[in-house]
């Protein structure tokens, strides 16, 4: 995974997507910025940027993904790999369904995924050094370079979805005090039943990550 480091950018996702559309890079490829001014979060919310935090997007061809990966749950897959990478450095971070990173019951970041042609683009925001009000920062000190090198090494191991899901399923109980959004309304995760494809069923309705 080649990584392009930038000082400043509007959005790593937008920047990377433009490189892909112009066929200016070879995949897989990642873009990491010291600061971004128009980050994209879940449900098109803006992700606040504080200099020094992690602003990352990476792109992988669909044909290079694990064969059993459910694309609708790609954010769970890659977020859990990043969660495990952080845990290797003794972080207590956990993954709230489907794509949010939490420490001490406060959000420290998240991941979203998009498909452009035959390419999966993942965007990551993580409060490494500081956090806006009502958010939290990472509970360990780790350099971006070390974190990204370890993360992409784990990604390149092509761990199967089945392996990732079997571990995430054991930790799903950590969601019980939280909720997620389904269109315009909130869904209590304490009432959710996690399914093998990464979706949840609440009140008889199946909900996918779609992020």
From TrEMBL:
SUPFAM superfamilies: Class II aaRS and biotin synthetases (SSF55681)
GO cellular component terms, semicolon-separated: cytoplasm
Protein name: Biotin--[acetyl-CoA-carboxylase] ligase
GO molecular function: biotin--[biotin carboxyl-carrier protein] ligase activity
EC nos: 6.3.4.15
The species this protein was found in: Sulfurimonas lithotrophica
Ligase keyword on record: yes
Keywords per UniProt: Ligase
Ranges for domain BPL/LPL catalytic: 1-180
The organism's place on the tree of life at top rank: Bacteria
UniProt key word Ligase: yes
InterPro entries referenced in this protein's UniProt entry, alphabetically: aa-tRNA-synth_II/BPL/LPL, Biotin_CoA_COase_ligase, BPL_LPL_catalytic
UniProt cross-references to Gene3D superfamilies, sorted A to Z: Bira Bifunctional Protein, Domain 2
């Amino acid at each position: 995974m080649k990584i392009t480091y930038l000082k400043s950018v509007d959005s790593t996702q937008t920047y990377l997507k433009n490189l892909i559309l112009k066929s200016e890079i070879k995949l897989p490829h990642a873009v990491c910025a010291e600061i971004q001014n128009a980050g994209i979060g879940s449900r098109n919310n803006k992700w606040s940027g504080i200099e020094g935090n992690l602003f990352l997007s990476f792109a992988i061809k669909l044909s290079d993904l694990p064969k059993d990966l459910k694309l609708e749950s790609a954010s769970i897959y890659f977020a859990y790999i990043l969660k495990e990478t952080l845990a290797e450095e003794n972080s207590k971070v956990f993954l709230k369904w489907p794509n949010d990173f939490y420490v001490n019951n406060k959000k420290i970041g998240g991941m979203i995924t998009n498909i452009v042609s035959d390419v999966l683009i993942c965007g990551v925001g993580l409060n490494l050094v500081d956090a806006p009000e009502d958010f939290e920062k990472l509970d360990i000190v780790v350099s971006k370079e070390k974190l990204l090198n370890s993360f992409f090494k784990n990604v390149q191991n092509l761990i199967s979805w089945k392996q990732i899901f079997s571990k995430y399923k054991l930790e799903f109980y950590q969601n019980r005090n939280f909720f997620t959004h389904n269109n315009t309304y909130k869904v209590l995760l304490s009432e959710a039943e996690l399914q093998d494809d990464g979706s949840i069923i609440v009140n008889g309705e199946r909900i996918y990550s779609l992020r």
